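Need a sequence for this fold. Nothing fancy.
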């Protein structure tokens, strides 16, 4: 509010009434103007306050409406959720009622079956009593008297058979005493050659650290169990620092297991699915190495043409030993000796060399085919188109078939020279390997068996069966049958545990 100061008359007299009246009128006008201006200001302030109040009321009303809408939506959601819960509870109550009805019906059926079973048991007992009484009447003996007579007869027969068995055992012991003494001495000498024995049946894999052993074993041993069941190789984890042992009598299987474990250790990811993937790749790699080893052996011998399947089979002998001698190197050496002998005798050098080079090829299949390796090798060579002279030399080199040609005789002689030269061979675990092979063959011949692995130096046999062909009860019967046949056919120290594994798998693919 602006106050305008009254203007004074320039020359008015202070005591002049008119001048005073004029001044008063001027002051009054100023006061009225100030009052009017003040009223106008108050009116504007009042209108501004009213507008602000209206805006605040509108904002509050809109906020209240929004909150009310949110509360209504929340209430609707809660009401829907409550309705869904009521529906689920009703469904559960209905299912529970149906289950109770079925259980009641089942209880009635079980009670009826129990009554029928009790009646059948009573009828069977009565029939058994009648049958026993009839038998006693016909035989003229009581059950106790017949039992005593039968026991006496069985005891007499058992004593007679025991005496015969003791006599036969004593005769066999005298006949084989000297042979067994020699075998014991040879086994003792062989045990001293621990390096050769370890080389035959055990591979050593060095680890980056001892903490890797725990990762190989896995949680509750699932990794090591999967590794042994997939590869068929026994994994020995002991106190040896930063090293594990792989034991298996099949050298090709042991090499596949060694490569598998080596790749798993380098990769660091060790779990059951990864073990199976790496095993498949390692098996393919070993097959390629076998082919390459067969081709290298052909180059060393100087043979140009041969069926690819024979080359791959020869390459598998790279991992096979016979009395400590590598079989593939033995074949190369035998072929060279035979070629020199044939040249001296002016015979067909290439034919004699080929016969000598293939004479032990059957050893690559002795883990898979039953029979002598000479006859197995001859059938294999005949199947892949080798000449009849070569086939005859192979089947006759251990006298399973009498030798009829000079090539067969030279094959025998070169084989004896290569294996009999000083330092060529040592006494090995040949009998032990054959026993393990026979154990696997016995278990493989049972119905429903998919895989068989002889482990723990032959003290354990793991039999993998098809779950759709062998149930749990049949698995127990299978284990007893395998154990009984092994007891009847083989001689072994200690005991052999038969473990039948029946595993079911379900696989789904997420896309």
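Here you go.
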């Amino acid at each position: 509010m602006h106050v305008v100061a009254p203007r004074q008359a320039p020359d008015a007299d202070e005591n002049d009434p008119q001048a005073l009246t004029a001044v008063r009128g001027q002051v009054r006008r100023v006061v009225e103007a100030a009052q009017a201006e003040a009223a106008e200001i108050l009116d504007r302030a009042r209108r501004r306050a009213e507008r602000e109040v209206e805006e605040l009321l509108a904002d509050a009303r809109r906020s209240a409406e929004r909150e009310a809408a949110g509360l209504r939506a929340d209430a609707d959601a809660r009401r829907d959720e409550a309705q869904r819960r009521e529906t689920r509870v009703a469904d559960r109550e209905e299912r529970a009622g149906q289950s109770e009805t079925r259980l009641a019906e089942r209880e009635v059926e079980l009670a009826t079956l129990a009554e029928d079973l009790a009646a059948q048991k009573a009828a069977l007992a009565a029939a058994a009593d009648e049958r026993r009484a009839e038998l006693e009447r016909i035989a003229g003996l009581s059950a106790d008297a017949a039992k005593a007579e039968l026991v006496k007869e069985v005891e007499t027969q058992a004593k007679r058979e025991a005496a015969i068995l003791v006599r036969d055992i004593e005769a066999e012991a005298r006949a084989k005493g000297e042979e067994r003494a020699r075998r014991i001495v040879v086994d003792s000498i062989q045990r001293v050659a621990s390096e050769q024995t370890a080389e035959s049946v055990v591979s050593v894999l060095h680890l980056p650290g001892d903490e890797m052993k725990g990762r190989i074993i896995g949680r509750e041993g699932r990794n090591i169990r999967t590794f042994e069941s997939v590869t068929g190789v026994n994994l020995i984890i002991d106190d040896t620092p930063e090293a594990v042992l792989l034991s298996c009598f099949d050298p090709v299987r042991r090499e596949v297991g060694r490569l598998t474990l080596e790749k798993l250790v380098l990769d660091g990811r060790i779990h059951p699915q990864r073990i199976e993937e790496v095993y498949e790749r390692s098996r393919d790699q070993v097959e390629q190495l076998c082919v390459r080893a067969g081709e290298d052996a052909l180059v060393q011998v100087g043979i140009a043409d041969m069926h690819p399947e024979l080359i791959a089979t020869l390459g598998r002998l790279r991992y096979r030993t016979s009395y400590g001698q590598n079989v593939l190197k033995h074949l190369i050496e035998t072929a060279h000796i035979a070629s020199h002998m044939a040249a001296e005798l002016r015979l067909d050098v290439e034919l004699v060399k080929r016969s000598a080079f293939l004479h032990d090829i059957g050893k690559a299949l002795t883990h898979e085919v039953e029979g002598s390796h000479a006859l197995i090798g001859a059938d294999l060579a005949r199947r892949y188109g080798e000449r009849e002279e070569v086939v005859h030399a192979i089947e006759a080199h251990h006298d399973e078939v009498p030798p009829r040609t000079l090539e067969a005789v030279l094959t025998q002689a070169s084989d004896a020279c290569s294996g009999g030269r000083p330092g060529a061979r040592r006494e090995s675990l040949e009998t032990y390997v054959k026993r393990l092979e026979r154990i696997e063959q016995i278990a493989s011949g049972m119905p429903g068996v998919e895989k068989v692995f002889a482990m723990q130096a032959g003290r354990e046999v793991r039999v993998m069966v098809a779950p759709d062909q062998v149930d749990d009860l049949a698995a127990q019967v299978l284990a007893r049958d395998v154990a009984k046949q092994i007891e009847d056919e083989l001689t072994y120290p200690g005991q052999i545990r038969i473990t039948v594994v029946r595993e079911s798998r379900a696989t789904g693919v997420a896309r």
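For context: The CA atoms of residues 234 and 247 lie 5 Å apart.
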